[in-house]
Structure formats: C-alpha cells, structure tokens
Amino acid sequence: MSAVLDLTPAPEAAPRGRMLAAQTAMEFKLLLRNGEQVLLSLLIPLLLMFFFNLPLLYSLGTPRRIDFVVPSIITLAVMSAAFTGLAIGTGFERKYAVLKRLGATALPRSVLVGGKTLAVLLLEVVQIALIVGLGFALAWHPHGDPALVLLLVVLGTLAFGGLGLLVAGTLRAEVTIAAANLIWLVLMFAGDIAIPLDKFGTAAQDVLRFLPSNALSDGLHYALQEHYPHGHPTQDVLTLLVWAALAIPAAARWFKWE
Question: Do residues 150 and 223 make contact, with C-beta atoms less than 8 angstroms apart?
C-alpha cells in the first residue's frame, strides 16, 4: 500500500538567518543601483580626500598631512554610507510605501534593520578599498593593527546605522533629508574629521570627544597613524559601543513602516 502524500500547505516565515541574508543581498543591490547614493558614498569622500590633503585651510602640525587625512576620510565614508545615505534612502522608502508593503510580510523590524546595516558594511568594503588605493597613490604609509581598524569600522557602522535608521524611521522623508545633511555637516566639522579636535577649546573638546564621529576618527588615527599623540583608543571603542547599544534598539523599537 503506497503512502499518502500530504500536500497540506504549511505557511510559515523563513528562518531569521535566511531572511537576513536575503534582505542584505537585496539592500546591497539597491544601494549600487542608486546613483545619488554612489555619488555620496564613493565619489565625494575621494574628492574631499584630495582637497583635505592640500595645505590650504590650516596646518595639521604633522610633516605628512596624508597620514592624518586618510583615517579622517575613512570615517567620513562610514558616516556617509551608514548614516546619511541610509537615513535618506530609507526615508523615501517609507514615503513611497515600500516599507509599508514590507511591514505586511513576515519580515521583523530587527531583520530589516540588520539587513540594511549589513548591506552598508558591504558598501564600506568598496569605499575603503578606493580610499586606501588613492591614499597609496598619494604616498600614504599606514601603520598599526588591521584588527583594530576592522573593529572600529564595524562599531562605527552599527552606531551610525542605528542613528540613520532612527531618523529615517521616525521623521517624514523631507525632514529626514534636511536633518541627515545637517547632522552630517555638524559631525564632519566637529568630529575630528575636517578639523582636528585640538583646534577647539578645552571645554568644547570635553564634549565633542564623545561624538560617534570623533570616537571613530580618533580611533582610526591611532590605529593607522604612526606616533599618534593620543593614548590607546579604549574610550573610543567604548563610546562607539554605547552609541550602537542605544541607537540600534531605539531604531528597532520606534521604527515606523509608514
């Protein structure tokens, strides 16, 4: 007697790991198809790297300006991709009801946040490869621990990604554009990227050193710049951990699909 074939449908959500992998792949493809995102994430950091390497604005107090510029531009690239680009892109996905349709599926908020964050990490691999290549062309000589660089970039991505999704998930798209660009400018000029932190007063330094942009930039300068005057970046790592620990759960908790 032959066994009875059971064709009863068994609808259920895919395992979270499979959902995360699929969402990450889709988000990465969307990033590469977005011309504005590519301009913001890939071309602008390279142009600013060339500009900041010219001794036009101020002296850095170092004989090799490029050694300071490259870690700063890596920070800027991470911030552009993980915060500004992610916030603006996700904000318009909300506006055009893309996220509303995703919200009607079995996709949890945490998987959406995780997929977007991992896609940004993949984009940053391309960014850093281009920045390092241009740096070598400009006679950059890196020093330090690659493992520490990787740790800082991952923590910075988590911190900025959480902040970007928090902004995109709680504000209207038009407001997100203005807010993301304004915050990006503030973090660039006050976060040890365009202007070294020691150019500010002592009181301002005590506050600005806890910005995520300053923590990532300062840590990368330590990891890549020989004889960097600051001590071990333990505080920078802890600062990025705190920002990530606060921003990611907040984004997952208050993210609105529409």
Answer: no
Residue pLDDT tens, the chain, 258 long: 556 666 666 666 677 788 888 888 988 888 887 766 677 677 888 888 887 777 655 556 566 778 888 888 999 999 988 898 888 888 888 887 777 777 677 777 778 778 887 888 898 898 899 999 998 888 888 887 888 999 999 999 999 988 998 898 888 878 888 888 899 888 888 877 777 777 788 888 888 888 999 999 989 988 887 656 566 788 999 999 999 999 988 887 887 766
Q: Which residues contact 149 (CB under 8 A, 6 or more apart)?
A: 220, 223, 224
Distance CA 153, CA 147 (A): 10
Structure tokens at 48: 């600013």
What does the block give as tokens for 140?
């950059």
Whether the CB-CB separation of 212 and 160 falls below 8 Å is answered with: yes
Q: What is the pTM of this model?
A: 0.83
- Where would I find the beta strands (DSSP E) of the chain? none
How far, in Å, CA of 159 to CA of 249, rounded? 11
Residue 78, SS3 per DSSP: helix
Provide the residue type at 183 as one letter: I
